[in-house]
Amino acid sequence: MRRSDPDSERRFVTILRADVIDSTGLIAELEPEEAVSRLEPALAAMRGAVRRFGGIVSKELGDGVAAVFGAPIADDNHAPLACHAALELVRRVASLGDAGLQVRVGLHSGHVVAYMVASEFSKVYEIGGAAQHLAARLESVAEANQIYVSEACQKLADGHVRFEFLGGRTLRGFNQPLPVYRIVGASDLSSWRVRRARSVSRFVDRVTERALLGRAADSVVAGRQTVLVLGDAGIGKSRLAHEFAQELKADGWRLVDAECSPNLQGAPFSTLKRLLLSLLEVTAKDPDDPGDPRSDLPLIQRCALDAVLDLPISEPQWNELEPHARGRAIADASCTIVASAARRHRMVLLLEDLHWIDRASDAVVAAIASLQAPDLLVLLTSRPNGMPVWIARCHAEIVAMRPLDDDSGLAMLSDMLGPSAANADLKNQIISHTANIPLFIEEVCRGLRDSGSLRGQWGDLALVRPIDELGIPTSIQGVIASRLDRVSRPERSILQIAAALGPRSSVAMLRHIAQLPEDVLQDCLAALDRTELLVRIDSELQDALEFRHEMVRQVTYESMVEKVREDIHARILATLERDDTIADEPDTLCYHAVRAKNWQKAFGHGRSAGRKCLSRSAFPDAANYFEIAMDALDRTPVTGLREAAAIDLRMEARAAFIASGHVAEWLDLGKEAERRADAIDDIGRKVAAMTVRAGAQNFYGAPVEAVAVNEEVVRLAEGWGNLGWLNLARYGLGQAYFLAGRYRDAVPTLALAHDQLASVEASAPIGTTPKYLLLLCCMMKSFTHTVMGEFDVAEQLQRQAAAIAEETGRPYDRVAAAYSGGWLMLGRGDPAAAAAILEDGFVLAQKHGIRLFVPVLACHLGIAYLEQGLFDRARGMLTEAREEAKAVGYTSAVLRSSIYLALATHRLGDVHAAQNMLREARNTARQQGFAGLEAEALFGEAVVTPASGAANKAAILAALRAAIAIASESGALPLQQKAEAMLNEALARGDEFT
Can you give the residue ranges of the Guanylate cyclase domain (predicted)? Predict the structure, then answer.
């Protein structure tokens, strides 16, 4: 066996599985020939039902069939068609008259890989993927002569078919119960009514198209006018036609409407029957009409209409007619009663979806559209690929539908989402994604609401979470896929390459990768431009091309099987790597390397992209690219060199994870690097990894543990002799001492690193620079001296930090300098100056995603507001600080913001809540070893506790004495002095109790 054309593709389809129940028992005692003759009628009925509704039997299973709808040619009605096929299948088997033959059917809509398998004598269309298994499981649990359907299929076919919800069912192979539906019958709703019932938007714009239709209506007095509204699925043909027809009806016109059905394309005269029934119903309701328009027809023409309407005919003359004569009689009779009705009353005859018309009706409708009858407006709708060949012969005016303009698209969105400016970015995103195609706009909004991204009622929806990908609702995947199936193989190939390149590409790039003859390439591009799938645009790029809307690109890309995608991305990568202008775009190269599964190149380009983002202070993006690089490197063969590179990469990546506030990931980087260093017995890299782990421990764990780890790391680093890593280790130990409240120990430790980094021979480890590390030492040392009350020394260090930040201009450096500057101003007792500095730093940190600093900046900004008496602002900022600190995993920041939030809460009158918060913070600080914060919490308890009653007074004095003891031991002189002053004041009032 071999695979042949069409190539393997991913398809979104509906799968039907059906079998005869207990077939083994039915034929167990039969001879082979008898067994075949018993089951074959049922199998033939199954095949016939599937084929009648456009499905393909992909496999016969002995006692059943597996079929697919929506492939190899896409059809946006694959789910309704499959449901109707299932109903027909059950009906046909039941009509065989064999009570022992009972069937069950399962239906599911999902993605599959579809391909043609060819042998020497035949071709078989096969499908693969998990979707077919769900259809099989639904079939296996269905009851006799019942059709069980998945939720995915039900959503696509709802309205066209009636369903009963059976609840969640546990199916073999699936961990969770799945919602299951049962088909209870076909719906009598037209496709337009189904769409109209789902619609939540109002009719907008279409001024030009309505003017053209109005002009045609004004001309019907002179003779019949035929207008074809032409456009792709979802463009709004039906909406325009019905809105206009209702306007005419309101002006006194008689409206006769019908539609062609995809379910009835194989049923002769099905469209004409609908049209005639609509005409007879309308005339019967008109009090001024003389009666049944058929009564004036000749006998043969009355018989002709009865035949179309499935009425009994006993006239021998009709039965003797040849098929061709019957067809002519049907056409003549139809034209006669339409023309007669129009003579009595101005009439608009609306016939929708001509692309689904059955062949027998097509010739009759062509004759009606060519009638020379005044006061008749024939209004037709069709997709371009189904436009009838007779349109030109009947001199129809074609009104080509275009997407809405941006203003109309936004008006439609405002109607659905609401006028709130908060949704402005989302609205623009949807406009870009859908290219203003009305159905696509509506279905994307519906998908966002169903997923919970939008909450509220239509017309007043609020976005509750950020949206990165709008995606493609399943309801319109088939619409787009059917357009793609109309292009040639070379055109499809170019579309696939363009989809892999992204929303925009160039002719030159497509030329390099497609390797097509120039005339073929240009013909393909011209054809794609005409169909508005890939259009030429005005751009600084020569011959720039762009997908008309992002959904077309996504469906094109997702239709490719993995091997095809990999090959295209590999060719793109090779082409880009030869282009010197792309060398400075490692993110683009990384994207294609990952999708080509070239892991060595993905590692190199991912690392380069991470470095580039770091240099631009785009820390979240840098972390993302370093993660890609780490994952790619780990997919390459294991060697000692690979492991060494993996350790170095994690060491380099730490800065991105630190700045973006991924503390847990930062800790994991160190742990993983340390494990790998042990495995290859690399002492130097182990020390580096331990240094990174120890730094993360300062934020993530208890100070006692952090101090122990950092002390061990400094000892190892001193033995190793690498000054860069030793400087970082000393900085980390100084920070650990600070967090533990050991300020006197922090000063000399930080001074050693500071002095080396300020020297001519300054050294820093991979992933950072001496100046950056010097700035951090200045910041940390300034904090320490501020807490100790040594403000002049702290100010010298702050000036040095600010000078470095000014020189580098890096946002991270500026934020760090703002943080230490604000802390110093608070220490000096100038909260207004502190707030001004901290506000600038806070905005800068948020803008550049420097999330590590956000909670501490917010905390100290809240303290500055508190000390200015802005208690409401202080509470809001400190609440935000605490939540951010929790999210980041920044333990000391959670405690500090909790302490000062309690003080703000106290100033706003809730003493009890403030006491509880401070008590909890004090206990946590004591348990985890945050001595400095324990002292601040104790002082806070003394402040918020009312000095009433002996117990409260005793508690205040105890808290103050405990705070003084800790502050004295650690060297926190300002806190010690504030506590002593308060204690002395209390004692002076006689609050001492024994």
Answer: 14-139
CA dist., res. 934 & res. 928, Å (int)? 10
What does the block give as tokens for 941? 């308890």
- For the chain, how many residues are written? 994
Give exposure, 559-589, as e/b (b: 16+ Cβ within 10 Å): bbeeebbbebbbbbbebbeeeeeeeebbbbb
How far apart (Å, rounded) are the C-alpha atoms in residues 964 and 942?
12
Question: Which two structure tokens, joined as six digits, stand for 986?
Answer: 């209390």
Q: Is the peptide bond before 41 cis (omega within 30 degrees of 0)?
A: no
Burial of 765: CB neighbours in 10 Å, binned 0-12, 13-18, 19+: buried
Say how far residue 646 (Cα) sits from the centre of its chain: 32
- Listed residue (382, 605, 577, 572) closest to 496, CA to CA: 572
pLDDT at 117 over 70: no
Question: What distance in Å separates the CA atoms of residue 506 and residue 497, rounded to the nearest whole number?
Answer: 11
DSSP 415-473: HHH-S-GGGHHHHHHHHHHHTT-HHHHHHHHHHHHHHTSEEEETTEEEE-S--S-----
Q: What is the pTM of this model?
A: 0.75
Give me the amino acid identity at 565: R
CB 8 within 8 A of CB 561: yes
User: Strand (E) positions, 90-224?
Assistant: 103-118, 123-128, 147-150, 161-169, 178-186
pLDDT band at 33 (very low <50, low <70, confident <90, very high): low
- Residue 603 Cα to chain centre, angstroms: 26
Residue 710 token pair? 């950092």
Give 636's Cβ-side CA count (13 Å radius): 19
15 beta partners: 68, 108
CA dist 13 to 9, 170, 443, 559, Å? 12, 23, 18, 12
> What is the rounded CA–CA span in Å between residue 818 and residue 802?
8
Please give the C-alpha separations between residue 263 and each of 42, 52, 619, 948, in angstroms, as whole numbers. Answer: 22, 8, 55, 85
Terminal Cα-to-Cα distance of the chain (whole angstroms): 99
In terms of pLDDT, which residue wins out, 88 or 700? Answer: 88
The rounded distance, in Å, linking the Cα atoms of 396 and 224 is 10
Q: Which residues of 250-273 are buried (b: 16+ CB within 10 A; e: fewer)?
A: eeebbbbbbbbbbbbbeeebbbbb
811-827 helix and 791-808 helix, angle to the nearest 10 degrees: 160
Beta bridge partners of 149: 107, 181
Task: Give me the half-sphere count of Cα atoms (radius 13 Å) on the Cβ side of residue 689.
Answer: 26
Closest among 590, 551, 555 to 573, alpha carbons compared:
590
Report residue 58: phi and psi, to 5°.
-85, -20
| Single-letter residue type at 477 | Q
Which burial class, exposed, middle or buried, applies to 97 when counting CB atoms under 10 A from its CB (0-12, 13-18, 19+)?
A: exposed
Helix residue ranges per DSSP H, 19-129: 23-27, 32-52, 78-94
Proportion of the chain above pLDDT 90, given as a percent: 43
- Taking the C-alpha atoms of residue 696 and residue 658, their distance in angstroms, rounded to an integer, is 8
Pairing between β-strand 225-230 and β-strand 123-128 as defined by DSSP bridges: unpaired
Give the separation between CA 137 and CA 19, rounded to whole angstroms: 12
Structure tokens that stand for 232 in this block: 């792709």
Give the Cβ contact number of residue 157 at 10 Å: 27
pLDDT at 7: 62
Rounded average pLDDT over 311-317:
85
